[in-house]
Amino acid sequence: MTLRFSSPLLAPFFALFLACLLPVVSGCEKKGATLYQGYAEGEFVLVAAPAGGRLEKRWVQRGQNVRALAPLFALEQENEKSAEREAGARLRTAEARLANITVGRRPSEIDAVLAGEAQAEAARRLSLLQLERHEKLFASGYIARVQLDEVRAAHSTNTARVAEAKAQLRTAQQSLGRDKEIEAARTEVEAARAALAQSSWRLEQRAVQAPAAALVHDTFYSEGEWVQAGSPVVSLLPPGNMKLRFFVPETVLGSVKVGQTVSATCNGCGKAIAAKISYLSRQPEYTPPVIYSRDQRTRLVFLAEALPEASDAARLHPGQPMDIELK
Q: Which H/E stretch holds residue 74?
């Protein structure tokens, strides 16, 4: 077909228009990247206390970012504090009882026994000198045998008293309790320590901290309300708990592998978000309504999940629609 122009001045402008339009038409003919629709999903951490009680303090609000080990909330603690004090007193009593039966007598009692031993030893030495002198006198015929026998008996008595005093000293230095009593006292101390540790643990559980740096997604109780045992008080969303969920058709399932890199985009997300596929469902399902179309409604799709980097995960919001491109 030949184009004719009423004015020869229009021909150059039309040629310029075709030159500009040709790259656009050729670009439309190129095959675009295949995008799979999906959404961002967060795995929330529901923080609760193991025992019930009145919510005494809540330090965080919904939408607040908290660091790891930051205080979240605290329940009333009076009962647990009293139990901890009682357990501590029982431990001190058990330790005192063990110390009392494992050591010897008091120092003053041991000093008295030592003095008795010294007195007995002095009497023994004196009787020994008297015995030696009476033996000489008896040999010279100055005294009778009866007198010698009396001195000899007195020396034997003093020697026995020295042995008795040494035995009393050993007894005073030994522990008061028997082996079985000492073992029972040590077991009682260990039981008291375990009870104190349990009481301290219960007290610590009344004040709950953040397990990791996270976003406070929601709060379920206000200060003063009664919290049931195990009932969540705060819902946290750590950045590492964000993931992408999308569906791939059965026709490309064989080319999708765990560990494969994907690129995700969304409205207002800025640059593309890189993620790695961490899960592929083994059970097919029909196309969900969120990606419903007349052409694909009878095709089977498989759920896939991908984990982004923690820095990129902070840019996502649960339920946010995403466009996923396989790399």
A: strand 71-75
Inter-residue contact 209 to 73 (CB < 8 Å): no
3-state secondary structure of 305: strand
Residue 261 lies in a domain: yes
Query: Domain of 191: which CATH number?
Result: 1.10.287.470
Question: What span, in angstroms and rounded, lies between the C-alpha atoms of 198 and 208?
Answer: 16
d(CA 75, CA 66): 19
Global model pTM greater than 0.85 = no
Residue 225, in any domain of the structure: no
Q: In b/e form, how buried is each residue of 144-161, taking b as 16+ CB within 10 angstroms? A: eeeebeebbebbeebbeb
Q: What is the CA radius of gyration of the chain?
A: 47
In three-state secondary structure terms, 110 is helix
**pLDDT tens-digit readout, 241-275:** 999 999 888 888 888 999 999 999 998 888 999 99
Domain count, the chain: 2
Range of the domain at 282: 35-43+239-326
Q: How far apart are CA 74 and CA 49, in angstroms?
A: 9
Q: Model confidence over 144-181: pLDDT tens digits?
A: 888 888 888 888 888 888 888 888 777 666 665 567 88
Cα angle value 13/19/23 (rounded, 5°): 150
